[in-house]
Amino acid sequence: MSMFKIFDVSGSAVSAQTQRLNVVASNLANADTVAGPDGQAYKARQVVFQTTLMGEVTSAGVRVSNVVESDTPGRKVHDPKHPAADAQGYVTFSNVSPVEEMVNMISASRSYQNNVEVMNTAKSLLMKTLQMGQG
User: Fold this and answer.
1) What secondary structure letter does DSSP report for 123?
2) Residues 6+ apart with CB under 8 A from 51
3) What is the pLDDT at residue 66?
4) Which residues is 68 bridged to in the sheet?
5) Residue 39 pLDDT more than 80?
6) Where are any strands of DSSP class E within 24-122?
7) Nearest-CA neighbor of 9 among 64, 54, 75?
8) C-alpha dihedral over 62, 66, 67, 70, to 10 degrees?
9) How much is the pTM?
10) What is the number of other CB atoms lying within 10 angstroms of the CB of residue 70?
């Protein structure tokens, strides 16, 4: 594998983790919402990653193939005075778990940082190789 392919592979991972972080941010922003644009409570979303070949059989990257909604039921709170309460007085909130989303955010952030570090290390090795050729 060419040293330059490392940038393609790590770059694809950085791009995928960026999309993952955006989905986590959206989930966290809607964690306490009651109804979305369609009148239903917000549903947590998760990214689905897929391996993708990077030109050669020997190198593979990653991409986001889909963003799926969770089918977990939303949290129900008894509040008969709330305008969005149902006939029994329950309000259905989103199914976002802030704790799970924070763990997901930390994982995505670390993956992002690791891939940036891989690119920086590859750059450093390439620069040292060029310096050896000059000396």
Assistant:
1) H
2) 60, 61, 62
3) 95
4) 46
5) no
6) 45-54, 56-69, 76-78, 90-92
7) 54
8) -110
9) 0.85
10) 16
Q: How far apart are CA 27 and CA 47, in angstroms?
A: 12
Q: Rounded mean pLDDT of 8-37?
A: 91
The pLDDT of residue 38 is above 70: no
Distances (CA, A) of 25 to 56, 67, 84, 134: 34, 14, 25, 47
Chain position carrying tokens 């997901």:
104
Contact 1, 56 (CB under 8 A): yes
Residue 55 banded pLDDT, cuts 50, 70, 90:
confident
CB neighbour class for 55 (10 Å; exposed up to 12, middle 13-18, buried from 19): exposed
Structure confidence at residue 27 (pLDDT): 96
pLDDT digits over 62-103, tens only? Answer: 999 999 999 998 888 899 998 888 888 888 899 999 999 999
Strands 56-69 and 90-92 turn out to be unpaired
In single-letter form, the type of residue at position 105 comes to M
> Are the C-beta atoms of 91 and 76 separated by less than 8 Å?
yes
Residue spans of the domains in the chain: they are 3-33+43-70+97-134
pLDDT at residue 126 greater than cutoff 70? yes
